[in-house]
Amino acid sequence: MASTGMESSNVDVWGNAFAAAMGFTTAEQSSSIFAFFRANLDGIFLEGQVREIPKPHQWTDAEAGASSPRSTQRMYQNGGYWGTPLHHVLPFLAMHDRDLACGILNQTIASYRTHGIWEWIGPFYPSKIQGAPGYTASATDAFFASEQLRCWSE
């Protein structure tokens, strides 16, 4: 669950994958996290990119106020899908199902080739809801994941 105190009812997708990928979880916890990912693929991934919390959940971010991009539905970390956590999300998935992880990586590459590399994309992409274009971190994290997964080798 998210650790902000105010948002503790939301599942932190990035944080759970990071904890498991780094070996901070038990085998049972890692399996449970993977089962959550598997059951919520459509709410977590879009074109191979990853939401921070699974759809349809949103951050309420009461302290930030209504003008905050985070509190706006379907924008930024409140509904956007990101390439930046791929360096730990995909290796985590591969620990349990390499084919699934490679399939998601291929979706990411196809999205980047078709639409370009963005900081984040909105759920109605390629509408005009996306972050900074040419976002290097998204590209490098996908590259790092590809080097870890080596989907092209046996």
Structural write-up:
The protein is mostly helical and 154 residues long. It has one domain (13-149). The chain is built from six helices and four strands. The chain has helices spanning 13-21, 27-39, 41-44, 86-96, 98-115, 136-149; strands at 45-46, 49-50, 81-82, 120-121. The chain has a two-stranded antiparallel sheet with strand order 1-2. Strand 1 (45-46) and strand 2 form a beta hairpin. Helix 1 crosses helix 4. The chain is globular, with a radius of gyration of 15 Å. Mean pLDDT is 85; it is low at 62-66.
The total strand number stands at 4
Tell me the structural class.
mainly alpha
In terms of DSSP E residues, the strand content is 5-15%
Provide mean pLDDT, rounded: 85
In quaternary terms, these chains amount to single chain
Main sheet makeup? 2 strands, antiparallel
Helical residues, percent: 40-55%
Number of domains: 1
SSE layout and pairing:
Layout: H1 13-21, H2 27-39, H3 41-44, E1 45-46, E2 49-50, E3 81-82, H4 86-96, H5 98-115, E4 120-121, H6 136-149
Antiparallel strand pairs: 1-2, 3-4
Features:
6 helices; mainly alpha; 4 strands; 45% helix; two-stranded antiparallel ribbon
Précis, in short:
By secondary structure, the chain is mainly alpha-helical. The protein has one domain (13-149). The protein contains 6 helices and 4 strands; from the N terminus they run H-H-H-E-E-E-H-H-E-H.
